[in-house]
Write a structure and sequence with these properties.
The complex is a heterodimer. By secondary structure, chain A is mainly α. Helix content of chain A is 74%, strand content 0%. In chain A, helix 1 runs antiparallel to helix 2 and helix 2 packs antiparallel against helix 3. The longest helix of chain A is centred in the last third of the chain and has 31 residues. Chain B is an all-alpha fold. Chain B has 2 domains: 88 residues, Up-down Bundle (Four Helix Bundle (Hemerythrin (Met), subunit A)); 48 residues. In chain B, 76% of the residues lie in helices and 0% in strands. Classes of the chains: A mainly alpha, B mainly alpha. Chains A and B meet through helix 1, helix 2 and helix 3 of A and helix 1, helix 2, helix 3, helix 4 and helix 5 of B.
Chain lengths: 104, 173
């Protein structure tokens, strides 16, 4: 087995990113689409931390980007779940195919 | 060093396996639990990289906050026991094709590129260093993004309340 380094982590994060993309394209349920978005955001965070560790060890920029991405992801998830529950109240379903009119 | 390598591959397998199961399983509650394991695996990789603060933030915010919120929303919006509809064959094939081609493209670029470190002495990512720089206003300070994020969190909170309020008014009238 090879010693894990930057390339291994980059491979993991790109595989995780495209797993999230696959889920986002196939799913039609809003909660599972939100889960795919969380996977994508996590892969980006992993990328930032790996670059901070192996390429620019003298700075902490990757750590701050990760912390801010996590904070924004929390805000985004809260707003998305509020919208999802609101949609469920008005349409009795959270399938994206059901919500096709703009106002209602 | 051998043990550390084995731990890394175990964490990677846990993260990727749970992620794949989370996007393919047809039971939505299981998808949330697999997502939880995937996020814990990523937190384990942060621990493996010795970024303990980021790992703690990941566990507290993602595992303790977002996944719990997702599970609440599943309870509020899904009937228990019914399966998610499986996507049409055509959509699955094309999504798989898009994901695999994208992965191949990105993997090729990573493989071709030679990442060189800048050779600087490593700054320890301790809580003291992170805290001093996050609230610093100097060349490496992040005080302005910190304030912007706090405004964003406030705006998100107000937005959630407004969205919830409008629905309540619609139900009463």
């Amino acid at each position: 087995m090879m010693e894990p380094g930057l390339y291994h982590i980059l491979f993991i994060s790109s595989a995780l990113f495209f797993t999230g993309v696959f889920g986002f394209l196939t799913r039609r349920n809003l909660v599972t689409m939100l889960m795919s978005i969380e996977l994508i955001l996590n892969s980006v965070c992993l990328n930032f931390v790996a670059f901070n560790k192996y390429v620019w060890p003298g700075r902490l920029d990757g750590v701050f980007f990760t912390v801010f991405i996590i904070a924004i992801a929390a805000a985004e998830a809260a707003v998305a779940i509020a919208i999802i529950i609101n949609l469920y109240r008005s349409h009795r379903s959270i399938d994206v195919e059901v919500a096709e009119e703009l106002k209602g | 060093m051998m043990g550390s390598t084995i731990i890394f591959y175990l964490l990677a397998a846990m993260t990727l396996g749970s992620a794949v199961l989370a996007v393919t399983t047809r039971k939505i509650f299981r998808a949330a639990i697999f997502l939880l394991f995937s996020l814990i695996g990523i937190a384990g990789i942060y621990f493996w990289l010795h970024y303990e603060f980021i790992a703690a933030v990941q566990i507290v915010v993602y595992v303790g906050g977002i996944v719990v919120m997702i599970i609440f929303s599943i309870f509020l919006t899904q009937q228990s026991g019914d399966l998610l509809p499986s996507p049409p064959q055509r959509r699955t094939v094309f999504s798989l094709l898009a994901a695999l081609l994208g992965l191949a493209l990105v993997g090729l670029q990573i493989w071709k590129h030679d990442f060189k470190g800048d050779g600087a002495t490593a700054v320890e990512p301790s809580v003291m260093n992170i805290g001093t720089r996050m609230l610093g206003t100097g060349a490496e300070g992040y005080a302005l993004p910190f304030e912007v994020v706090s405004m964003l969190l406030l705006a998100a909170m107000v937005g959630c309340i407004v969205i919830a309020m409008r629905a309540a008014k619609n139900e009463t009238t």
